[in-house]
Fold this sequence. Notes:
The protein is an alpha/beta fold.
Amino acid sequence: MLELTPFSELNLLFDKKLSNEDVYVTEGKSFIKIFQQGLSYASNKDESKLIKNYLSLPAFVQVGIMRVKAMLRKPMPSILADTPYLIIEPNRLIADKEGQWHSIYFENIAKTVGLDRVTWVNKKKDIRFPTSFVLNQLPHAYPAPDSNEIQFLRVILKTLKKLHAAERFTPREKAHIQSCFHIYYDDFRFYYRLFKGSKVKCVLFICHYQTEGLMAALKVLDITSVEAQHGLIAQNDLYYSYKQHFAQGLKNADFPDHILVYGSYWKGLLHRGCEFEPQQIHVAGDYFWRNPSVSVPVEKKNTVLICAQKTMHEEYVGYAHKLLPVLKQYPDWHWIIKLHPLEANKALYEPLKGLGFEIIDAERTLDDLLHECRIQISIYSTTFYDALGFDVVNFSLQNYGTHSDYAADMLREQVALPLSIEENPIERYFAEKASPSALLQRDEVYAPFDAHSVKQLLESCISN
């Protein structure tokens, strides 16, 4: 049965198992993040991540299997793009009042270098934003491996040999880590073949975790990688702001060459870690595409906005039931639950409509809702940062659910006030409004978009 281990416990596990980098660094290449993934899946008892693989076989046997498969299958097409920039669009889109869809993360960034110099690739098929290539529709079928692919395999196999000889990992952990290496190596071959022979010099994407194969391929092909911050970064994260004792083991690990962040606050948070050098972190400002039609402030309403997070339906549906006496006590207040765009269990929220909650999916933007509401409630979320400057009181539910340690970070980082599930949020709101705010200022979190600096960075990425 799948179990969700709190991030604080996973970080303690990483401290214990990965303090010695010898096992995951081979010939100067660090695979620390692949080990982290395997340990996470093993801790969560996620058996769906155990995939049959050939990595226990000798290298020459695996190469032979790959060569036979290459003769039997039609290889996937390469991206023969003639633009210097390529964007991997994560299908996070927003519509303007004319119904035209825009990339939330990348439209404004792409405009800095010129849209005609950018090739767009979707992660998955999306009729709202059609592109020539859709990654999840491409077959994972490749030509026979070349010398780069074979050499990379040999380094992986040397690492796995050290893994299986190490006594500090359990059999379950070893199986999960090897399965993660299987996915990693296949992703490496996928992106290596996708970009080999193209004129692309810089690839932009979100989320450097679980995209390690992409970054490894780009490194071999001498293509610059740029990550755009996609949301919350916290001190308690698994793949950001690493503790200093990992510094040696992070050298030549799979991280982007550059990362764009929203403001000085995020840059300072990453500086606490050791995975990035200062010159790799760039304050780009608020580069989100935002709908001009909701940029004009509207009159505040007695609205409570509850921003739910994906795969946390049990916590949020349970909290909604806890609030029912408060709903009856304040009939003039409106209660909205906004679902995460990637929530897979949306139907489980439907019964709440009959209890006095409005359930919002994608029909209204977060900006629109923040203009209206007086209160926002969540556990831990980037929406707390989004709300700064909107005259909204943020409340983070404390000591509730699996990720209560992450929720505690929201207090330490001064973006939300504590709220227990037993408290009346309306009463707390009026009490807090009578006191000056101690929360962060919006400009620290979301600086104005610096198009000039972004353009300078991206131009330097293709000039080398």
